[in-house]
Amino acid sequence: MRLFKQVIFGIIFVLIAGLIIYVIVSAVFSSDPYPSYCYDGVQNREEEGIDCGGLCVACDEEISDVRILDKKLFPTNTGTGLVVEIQNPDTQNAVASFAYEMILKDIAGSGVDTVDGTSFLYTGEIKHLVFPSLPFSFGTITSVDIEILDVKKVTKSDFQKPDVITRSVRVQKDPIRVTGSLVNNEAVSFDDVTVYALLYNRAGMLVGASKTHIDDIESLETVQFNIVFSPDLSIQEETSSVTAIFEDTMQRGDSGEVVRMLQGILRELGLLQRDPTGFFDSITEDALKDFQLEHNIAQTGMLDNETRFILNQTLVNKENSDSADHVSKKVDPTKTKVFVDIQR
Q1: Residues 90 and 103 in one domain
Q2: Is residue 149 part of a domain?
Q3: Which of 30, 83, 274, 298 is spaced 20 to 30 Å from 310 by Cα?
Q4: Boundary of a domain, candidates 41, 59, 77
Q5: pLDDT below 50 — which residues of the chain?
Q6: Looking at the structure, do residues 54 and 69 belong to the same domain, yes or no?
Q7: Helices 257-268 and 282-294 meet at what angle, rounded to 10?
Q8: Domain match, 21 and 83 both
Q9: How far is CA 22 from the centre of its chain?
């Protein structure tokens, strides 16, 4: 009887040891990179959803829609420019098409106009919707509400980004324009290619955007592009220096480019925590009061004569200050960004 028990226990021990060895070998040498809990239909372990997230592949339910990353308004000689930065955060699926509707609002939050259209995004792509000049004086539009509609997703393999690149990009002046070559590295042709460029000043503030269309580019072809910008822009010269820029008084209720310049300065000084709008509101007034407090000036909240003198003097005394560059419409060519928007 004792011998029989020893045999039984021995067999059980061998089976358990073999099972442990099998699990270890399977975990190390298995061609499946995902753990078994990725297929159990339950949200557990490192998963962010049911069988997705962590070490598991993303589920369709977890795929994010088109994201709005940023919205920038800037003045032009004929109105207001708008650039909207968007992203497809999904690295497994592309957005073959989507529609957008943008409501342009004034300082009171009322809708002034609506802009709509369609576009697309490749997997993981970040790009921009560019409107070089809308027919509204700068300061009329202070906010933009965007709704993304009719998102159509396809797998990455069914909608791959074309291998079309830019080369020899240059920023030229009189008037400012961005030129270069567009190179198609694929053995297929493409129609309706858009090349757009974003211009920034030395402080990294967007001051201009424009685009051009190329009807078609043949397989393995190189074509030239020329993107022309608003004539009120100029090139930042290396020898330029900071000078006094405010010549008039300002107060709450004022609007325009000079207000935007003031807001840019206040932001660079750490007194205004938002992008310039071009409208002198209560937030701008409070920021100006903070500046006046720092310099022992009467806190009127206005850019009166005394405040204007101190502010101009502050800018003059700060050599190579980014503050003046922030509001300058002088383009820093080294910060130029050029993109190709082309649908397969």
Answers
A1: yes
A2: yes
A3: 274
A4: 59
A5: 27-32, 60-63, 239-244, 319-326
A6: no
A7: 50
A8: no
A9: 50
Residue 147 has a pLDDT of 94
pLDDT tens digits along 14-55: 778 766 776 565 544 444 455 666 656 667 776 766 566 666
Query: How many domains does the chain contain in total?
Result: 4
DSSP structure string for 136-171: S-TTS--EEEEEEEEEEEEEGGGSPPP-EEEEEEEE
Tokens of 149: 């509609």
Residues 224 and 241: beta-carbon distance below 8 Å: no
Distances (CA, A) of 16 to 8, 20, 87, 96, 266: 13, 6, 52, 53, 72
Instruction: Note down the domain range covering 12.
Output: 2-59
In a domain, 248, yes or no: no
pLDDT of residue 214: 96
Residue 80 lies in a domain: yes
Say what the pLDDT of residue 208 is.
94
| Same domain membership, residue 171 and residue 106 | no
Question: What is the C-alpha to C-alpha distance for residues 238 and 320, in angstroms, rounded to an integer?
Answer: 10
| Alpha-carbon span 44 to 52, nearest angstrom | 10
The encoded tokens of residue 208 equal: 């201009």
Residue 40's pLDDT is what? 61
- Can you tell me the distance from the alpha carbon of 152 to that of 163, in angstroms, rounded to the nearest whole number? 22
pLDDT for res 239: 42
Partners of 131 in the β-ladder? 82
The angle subtended at Cα 96 by Cα 93 and Cα 98, nearest 5°, is 110
What's the one-letter identity of residue 339?
A: F
- Residue 268 belongs to a domain: yes
Give the tokens for residue 144: 């933009």
| β-strands 177-184, 126-134 pairing | unpaired
The domain boundary residue, chosen from 16, 40, 59: 59
One domain for residues 121 and 39: no
Contact between residue 150 and residue 99 where contact means Cβ atoms under 8 Å apart: yes
**Cβ neighbours of residue 33 under 8 Å, at least 6 residues apart?**
55
Please give the distance of CA 97 from its chain centroid, rounded to a whole number: 19
Is the peptide bond preceding residue 175 cis, with omega within 30 degrees of 0? yes
